[in-house]
Amino acid sequence: MPNISSQQDSDTLKRVEEQINILSGILDRGRQHLRFPGRLEQRYLEFRNQRFLEIDQKIIIGGLLFYLGFSWSDFYLGGDNANLIFICRFLVTITMFCLLWWVPRSRFAAHMVTVAASGIFLAGLSVIFFIQLIPDALKYAYHLGLVPIQVFALVALRLSYRAMLVVSVSLLVCYVVMLLFSDTPPLSPELNSIVEIFMPLFVLFWLLLIGMGAYLAYAIESSARNDYMKNRLLALEAERLQYLTRRLHLLSTTDSLTGIANRRYLEECLANEWRRCLRSQTPLSLVMVDIDNFKDYNDHYGHQQGDRCLHDIAQAMASFCQRPGDLCARYGGEEFIIILPDTAPGEAAYMAEKIRESIVALAIPHETSEHLVATISVGVASMIPQADSSSDDLLRSADRMLYQAKEQGRNCVVAA
């Protein structure tokens, strides 16, 4: 009989169904604010972080290599500060590579998205700093280096709408502050007029890029969260189905009154053990038990007390079934059968006597019995299965031994 705790399964099933109801409610509402309630949000962030480590980390590495590859512009536009700009760019790249290697292996692994966002912001800030080091005549060409930084922020942080928006807006604010507080280099009148038009348009273009990116990031994160909920819902439904299947199996194989195996499961297990012992040519023993004078017990104490008596005796007998193949089952009414595979006749008779003594030791009052306590009669039969015999032969033999035990005055064990 499977060792299943129905109460534990019921509690677990209740928790699973509560989670299913929460997820179904969120999906039914449709609109969401990119945040789940309570523990669900934490689980999603753990899932998103794991996905980031598996997939988006490679995008970050590619972005860093692209950022480092842009060092050609440092030497082409940097003038006297070219070496300084390259060294700063190289240090930023090395620092980020070290963080990408260390953070996933540290206790800060759960904050990998935050680390990536900080790294992208640092890269963008470095470009703004480099602009100040470029010679005035070439300075404005370097402004375009902020465009790939912004595009990369949209790609790398697409699963985190808030992180993408914070990084993008922060970089734009830093850029605007730089424009407001830095001196405009004197150029030719034609170039000055172009710059006066270019800079506001560049800021406007950046704002539009952030707006489009924010919309896409919101849509992507919303879709990712919906997919997570649907996948989580499928997993919970599968878990729920598993528990319901186990409960159905438990109901179909367990006697509801005594909590032990029912007759249907007994017959199934007996057939299986018979075939197994037939193949191995090992003995199979049956212990058939009948509660003595149980009708008188019911008449005297009532059916509720009779049910308690059946339950207590059944549980006491089941406690002797310690091996994998052992099984105690209710055969019908006040009759029980214990299957003992790979058990010789002497061993089965010895166990039957121990079971009888344990029932007497329960001291369940039975005033209409000559022993004044509830007792059992036990018949024991053993066979080495043969091709020309069946489990019914073993059952009939055990039944005959039980009949003899009753004939001998009850409260005794008779073995074949």
Automatic annotation (TrEMBL):
Membrane-spanning residues: 59-78, 84-103, 115-134, 140-157, 164-182, 197-220
GO cellular component: plasma membrane
GO terms (BP aspect): cell adhesion involved in single-species biofilm formation; negative regulation of bacterial-type flagellum-dependent cell motility
Cofactor requirements of the protein: Mg(2+)
Record-linked Gene3D superfamilies: 3.30.70.270
Residue stretches in coiled coil: none
UniProt-listed SMART domains: GGDEF
Top-level enzyme category: transferase
Protein name in the entry: diguanylate cyclase
Native source organism of the sequence: Thalassolituus pacificus
Species classification: Bacteria, Pseudomonadati, Pseudomonadota, Gammaproteobacteria, Oceanospirillales
